[in-house]
TrEMBL record:
<dbReference type="GO" id="GO:0005829">
    <property type="term" value="C:cytosol"/>
</dbReference>
<dbReference type="Pfam" id="PF03061">
    <property type="entry name" value="4HBT"/>
</dbReference>
<dbReference type="InterPro" id="IPR029069">
    <property type="entry name" value="HotDog_dom_sf"/>
</dbReference>
<protein>
    <submittedName>
        <fullName>Uncharacterized protein (TIGR00369 family)</fullName>
    </submittedName>
</protein>
<feature type="domain" description="Thioesterase">
    <location>
        <begin position="51"/>
        <end position="127"/>
    </location>
</feature>
<dbReference type="InterPro" id="IPR003736">
    <property type="entry name" value="PAAI_dom"/>
</dbReference>
<keyword id="KW-0378">Hydrolase</keyword>
<dbReference type="InterPro" id="IPR006683">
    <property type="entry name" value="Thioestr_dom"/>
</dbReference>
<comment type="similarity">
    <text>Belongs to the thioesterase PaaI family.</text>
</comment>
<dbReference type="GO" id="GO:0061522">
    <property type="term" value="F:1,4-dihydroxy-2-naphthoyl-CoA thioesterase activity"/>
</dbReference>
Length: 139
């Protein structure tokens, strides 16, 4: 990382302005050498009709943090990065509080990258496990 943690998190915050991430109240909270973390509040805005977190909201959170991680860790000032495949397994329901998405790179190739995004609840229990594949394109 060539920027400080605070600079990276501030850049992520600016990236969210007027996007789905802002609509879902996604907030980037931590970054390390190979992991980016974001959180999302679980409120009726992201519930399915029976009052639990909607799987689509979880996938939106996962793709948001995975794509942002790709942007940060792949020096996206020089390339464009796009998600090309996403798969999610939802294993636990959440009704309230926050969920946290931890994006970690599993494969960092020049053209394609594979990201694992673990979404956990406030007790660090697995809610969803997501796999995101991104592609790097020349600008």
């Amino acid at each position: 990382m060539k920027h400080t943690k605070a600079e990276i998190l501030e850049g992520c915050k600016k990236m969210c302005k007027n996007t789905l991430m802002e609509t879902l109240d996604i907030e980037f909270t931590d970054v390390s050498e190979n992991t980016l973390v974001a959180r999302m509040p679980v409120t009726p805005r992201v519930h399915q009709p029976d009052g639990v977190l909607h799987g689509g909201a979880s996938v939106a959170l996962a793709e948001s943090v995975g794509s942002a991680a790709a942007f940060i860790f792949l020096n996206a000032e020089e390339v464009a990065i796009r998600g090309i495949e996403i798969a999610a397994n939802h294993v636990k329901s959440v009704r309230e509080g926050y969920v946290y998405a931890h994006a970690k790179v599993l494969h960092k190739g020049r053209t394609t990258q594979l990201w694992q995004i673990r979404i956990v609840n406030e007790e660090d229990q697995l809610v969803s496990l997501v796999k995101l594949t991104t592609i790097t394109l020349q600008k």
